[in-house]
C-alpha cells in the first residue's frame, strides 16, 4: 500500500482550520464581487428559487469566464425566472439563448433536468449534494456541492479549478492535480475545511480567492487573507523549513501528493510551482467545407440557407450553413467536387463545382478539436425547393441568422 501523505500536506490542526475559516470569510465579506446570482441567492427567500439561480449560474460558469456569463445569466433569468418556466421552454429557445457560450449540451441537460424536477419530483429540488448528483442529469459532484451549500446550507465542500489551485498551494500538493487520487484527497480536504455555520459563503470565498487573488500566474500573495497558512509561500520565502522534513523530499517515502522526482522545485516559479497538471492532449485537427448559399428575398434583402445539425454529438441541434467534413489531404479540386455533390442534396438541382467561390478560411478552436472551415459562397437565382425528408432547413435574413441558435464559428463564417 502507498505511504499516507505527511501531515504537512493536510489540514489536521483544529485551531489552524478555525483561523483559516475566519480569515477567509472576513475577507470575503469585505472583498467579494457583486455578481447577479449572488445577489439573487442572498435576497430570494424561497430555497428552491435560490437553488435554481445558483444552478443556472454554475452550469454557465463551467468553462466560461465570469465577465462573459453575466449578460447571458441576466437574459436567461429574465426569460425563465423559475425552474417551471424553463421546463416549458423548447430546446430551440434554449439553444438560441445559449448560442455563444459553448458546450451546448450544458444548456440542453439543464432544461432536461428542469423538466424532470417538474414531472417526476413534484417541482421540488433535491436538497442534498448526494441527491442532486443522483437525480438531476448534468449535475456533477461540484455543481451539486455548490447548490447544496449555497442554497440549502449543507456543510459540504466544493472542488473546482480555483479551489484545486488554492488547496494545492496551501499544502504544496505537487502530484498531477487531475489524477483521481489527488482529486479525492482535495475533496476530503474541502469537506474538512468548509465552515459549518456558513458553508455556502465559505465555498464561494474559496472560489473567489482562486479567481481574484490566488490566480494561475502572478498571484497576489501579499493580499491573500490566508497567506500565513500557505506552505508554498513559506517554501518560497524560507526555503526548506526546519526542523519539519521538507515536503519536496517526502516523495522518497512514496508520498502520493508530492511532485515527481523528475520535476523538482523551481525557485523562480515560487508558489506557481503548484498545482501541477499532466500535459494537455493535443486537439484533433479537422477540416470542414462550408458554403453560404445566398438568394434574394421577397424584399430584396439577401437570405441564407441554414440547416440543423443532428440532435447528438458536437454542437447538437444547432443551425449552420451546409457543411461537409473533409478527409485529410484532399486536394482543393476534390474538395469543391465533394461540396458541390453535398449541396445538390439540399438544393435539389445540380451544383457546378466551378461555381463555388472560395472566400477564405475560418479557424475555430473547440476544447478538443482544432477546426478549420473552408468557406465558399454560392449565389442562387430563383427559388429553391427544400426537401422536407432531409434535416430541418430554412432561409433566413442576416438578422434572423443572428437570432437563431447558431454557433460562434458560423457567425465567423458569415
TrEMBL record:
GO MF term list: 4 iron, 4 sulfur cluster binding; 8-oxo-7,8-dihydroguanine DNA N-glycosylase activity; adenine/guanine mispair binding; metal ion binding; oxidized purine DNA binding; purine-specific mismatch base pair DNA N-glycosylase activity
Catalytic activities: Hydrolyzes free adenine bases from 7,8-dihydro-8-oxoguanine:adenine mismatched double-stranded DNA, leaving an apurinic site
Pfam families documented for this protein: HHH, HhH-GPD, NUDIX_4
Gene Ontology CC: one annotated term: nucleus
Major localisation: mitochondrion
Cofactor note: Binds 1 [4Fe-4S] cluster.
Coiled-coil zones: none
Full protein name: Adenine DNA glycosylase
Amino acid at each position: 500500500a502507498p505511504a499516507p501523505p505527511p501531515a504537512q500536506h493536510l489540514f489536521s490542526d483544529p485551531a489552524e482550520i478555525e483561523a483559516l475559516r475566519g480569515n477567509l470569510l472576513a475577507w470575503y465579506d469585505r472583498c467579494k464581487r457583486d455578481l447577479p446570482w449572488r445577489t439573487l441567492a442572498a435576497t430570494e427567500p424561497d430555497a428552491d428559487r435560490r437553488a435554481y439561480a445558483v444552478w443556472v449560474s454554475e452550469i454557465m460558469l463551467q468553462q466560461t469566464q465570469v465577465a462573459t456569463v453575466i449578460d447571458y445569466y441576466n437574459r436567461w433569468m429574465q426569460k425563465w425566472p423559475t425552474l417551471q418556466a424553463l421546463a416549458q421552454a423548447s430546446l430551440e429557445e434554449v439553444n438560441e439563448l445559449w448560442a455563444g457560450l459553448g458546450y451546448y449540451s450544458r444548456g440542453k441537460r439543464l432544461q432536461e433536468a428542469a423538466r424532470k424536477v417538474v414531472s417526476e419530483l413534484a417541482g421540488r429540488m433535491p436538497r442534498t449534494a448526494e441527491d442532486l448528483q443522483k437525480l438531476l442529469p448534468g449535475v456533477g459532484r461540484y455543481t451539486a456541492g455548490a447548490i447544496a451549500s449555497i442554497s440549502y446550507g449543507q456543510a459540504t465542500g466544493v472542488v473546482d479549478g480555483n479551489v484545486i489551485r488554492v488547496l494545492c498551494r496551501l499544502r504544496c500538493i505537487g502530484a498531477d492535480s487531475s489524477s483521481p487520487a489527488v482529486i479525492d484527497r482535495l475533496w476530503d480536504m474541502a469537506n474538512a475545511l468548509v465552515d459549518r455555520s456558513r458553508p455556502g459563503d465559505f465555498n464561494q470565498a474559496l472560489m473567489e480567492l482562486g479567481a481574484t487573488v490566488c490566480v494561475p500566474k502572478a498571484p497576489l500573495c501579499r493580499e491573500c487573507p490566508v497567506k500565513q497558512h500557505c506552505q508554498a509561500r513559506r517554501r518560497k520565502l524560507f526555503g526548506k523549513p526546519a526542523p519539519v522534513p521538507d515536503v519536496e523530499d517526502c516523495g522518497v517515502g512514496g508520498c502520493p501528493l508530492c511532485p515527481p522526482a523528475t520535476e523538482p522545485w523551481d525557485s523562480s516559479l515560487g508558489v506557481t510551482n503548484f498545482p501541477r497538471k499532466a500535459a494537455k492532449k493535443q486537439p484533433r485537427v479537422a477540416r470542414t467545407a462550408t458554403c453560404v448559399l445566398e438568394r434574394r428575398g421577397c424584399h430584396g434583402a439577401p437570405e441564407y440557407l441554414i440547416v440543423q445539425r443532428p440532435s447528438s454529438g458536437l454542437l447538437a441541434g444547432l443551425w449552420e450553413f451546409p457543411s461537409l467534413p473533409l478527409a485529410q489531404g484532399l486536394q482543393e479540386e476534390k474538395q469543391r467536387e465533394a461540396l458541390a455533390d453535398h449541396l445538390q442534396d439540399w438544393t435539389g438541382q445540380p451544383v457546378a463545382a466551378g461555381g463555388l467561390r472560395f472566400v477564405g478560411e475560418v479557424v475555430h478552436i473547440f476544447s478538443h478539436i482544432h477546426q478549420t472551415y473552408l468557406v465558399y459562397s454560392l449565389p442562387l437565382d430563383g427559388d429553391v425547393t427544400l426537401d422536407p425528408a432531409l434535416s430541418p432547413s430554412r432561409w433566413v435574413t442576416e438578422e434572423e441568422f443572428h437570432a437563431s441558435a447558431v454557433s460562434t464559428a458560423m457567425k465567423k463564417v458569415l
